[in-house]
Amino acid sequence: MSTFKVFYGGTSNYDQEFEGTKRAGALFHNYWTQNGPGQKIFEDFIIGLVGSGLIVTYKDDLNPDNRVFVKNTGGANHVFYKSGGQDKQINVKAEKDNPNNDVVTMAVPSLAADPDTGDTKDYLNNALTKLIDPQIHPDEKREFLFGLLLLKRCR
């Protein structure tokens, strides 16, 4: 269901993903610009997350090969991961929403997703557990939700 996952303090449990996603949500405003194209904003955002010390993974796999890294090619920074031992560039695509265009863009998941079964159910249950935890401040919950909206495929 996700394209990028962001972790803080490791990748061994959902608490670390919650912390990373929350921090991503809090940092997005540093990259948004009024006139910048959506693709550049999104790529700069992911590059910034990698550079901030957060662990960013690509796809749902926590395999170390799927950790995102930044590499300078053609005089600009781009995001990459390893595939078969080779560096593979992630071609970030994004479009800035404009409600006056009458266009809706959605990335449809590559796998079937059902909120009541399988990995999707487990993932949503983990998120819900964080959202109903009275020990977590509402500001942190908002940052987490915003991070989820920014990083997940269906938005």
Written description of the protein model:
This protein has 155 residues and is α+β, with helices and mostly antiparallel strands. Helices cover 37% and strands 16% of the residues. The chain has 4 helices and 5 strands, in the order E-H-H-E-E-E-E-H-H. The strands form 2 sheets. Strands 3-4-5 form a 3-stranded antiparallel β-sheet, with helices on one face. A two-stranded antiparallel ribbon has the order 1-2. Strand 3 and strand 4 form a beta hairpin. It is globular. The N and C termini lie close together (11 Å). The model has no long low-confidence stretch (mean pLDDT 89).
Q: What's the arrangement of secondary structure elements?
A:
Elements: E1 4-7, H1 14-27, H2 38-51, E2 55-58, E3 69-73, E4 76-83, E5 86-89, H3 118-132, H4 138-151
Antiparallel strand pairs: 1-2, 3-4, 4-5
Brief digest:
This protein has 155 residues and is α+β, with helices and mostly antiparallel strands.
Strand order of the biggest β-sheet: 3-4-5
Mean pLDDT: 89
Shape: globular
**SS content category:** alpha+beta
User: How much strand content do the residues show?
Assistant: 15-25%
Calculate Rg over CA atoms: 16 Å
Helix-strand pattern, N to C?
Answer: EHHEEEEHH
What fraction, in percent, of the residue positions are helical? Answer: 25-40%
Number of strands: 5
Instruction: Give the helix tally.
Output: 4
Low-confidence stretches: none
Oligomer: single chain
- Biggest pleated sheet: 3 strands, antiparallel
Distance between the termini: 11 Å
